[in-house]
Automatic annotation (TrEMBL):
It comes from Candidatus Galacturonatibacter soehngenii. This is Acyltransferase. The chain crosses the membrane at residues 12-32, 38-61, 82-100, 138-155, 162-180, 200-220, 227-248, 254-272, 293-312, 318-339. Keywords: Acyltransferase, Membrane, Transferase, Transmembrane, Transmembrane helix. GO terms for molecular function: acyltransferase activity, transferring groups other than amino-acyl groups. InterPro entries: Acyl_transf_3_dom, Acyltransferase_3. Residues 9-331 form the Acyltransferase domain. The lineage of its organism: Bacteria, Bacillati, Bacillota, Clostridia, Lachnospirales.
Amino acid sequence: MKNQSNRNGAIELWRFILIGAIGIMHFSNSYYGSSPYFGGAYVATEFFFIVSGYLLFVSFYKNRAREEEINAWQFTFHRIKNLYPCYLLSFLVLFCFIMVQDKASLSTWITNFSQSAWELSFLQISGLKGFRLFNYPAWYISAMLIVGYFIYALLELNEKKFAKLYMPLAVLGIYCFFSKNAENIDVWGGAKILDISDALMRAFAGMSLGGICYYASLLIKKKQRSSVVRVLLSIGELAVFLLSIFLMNQKGHTQIDFYIILLLAVGITLSFSEQTYITKLLSKQPIVWIGKLSYPMFLNQIFVIYLIGAYLNQLSYSKGIVIFMMILIAISFIELLILQGLNCLKTKVL
């Protein structure tokens, strides 16, 4: 059951909650030196990879059904077009804040901005060297776009072979590789095999798993389920997400990461199956609007961390978390309003 804006309310709510968990983890580690809560929230990134992969498959088959000639380049450009305004605004706010705090000279401003070329072009996680990274959690966006292009291209070339062979092989092979060599999934800044970025491997596995979730959800939604079955599916959907969050709230960096990924995949499949009451209940405009806050919240978390670190010292843990979340939500809300205003102005002018 989808709302008027074609957004899944359950996915939007979990998106908001998990972004909050990631932000709390980053803030705690930066401000307090450790994270007593949500130490394993980095696994939530897999939720976003899986959802991105799922939606990629939705787009691919929609384009095919409409008989539209949309290739991998066009698909990726459309994604960048949607993501870039908020991405750029958040980057500029963070960049200017850091430069002002450092009392940087004009030449330093120019040098640092020029060294941001790969970050500004979503290529910071490609393996290219010689750049400075400012908004480091945005590596996820870079990995998602790069891998999304290749997955879409592979679907164009040979959909059946990719879906039946390469996709499940990638999921199994990559997760087994990280389970053996890293013993957790908190990898993104290195390259352990053939000089391929860990982040790209992680994204390929997660987005391929999203493709598997897509096919699984089609099987579930093939026929309308009875009320009893839908209640059971609803309980299962809620249970796997709550269990995932409970496990993320542990210390992290263990083999449990891979159990969480499986739980997230099951929950996402059920949420998109259109057979649970939870999705129907949550697919309301207020929930969807909350979900829209998640993207600017994700991009602004580092700015808020630096802001609090610069001006608010020795906060208690509970007070620090509350202040962090309040400022993060407020700034993200303001950015959304600014972008909506600019979009309206652009529409009127053009």
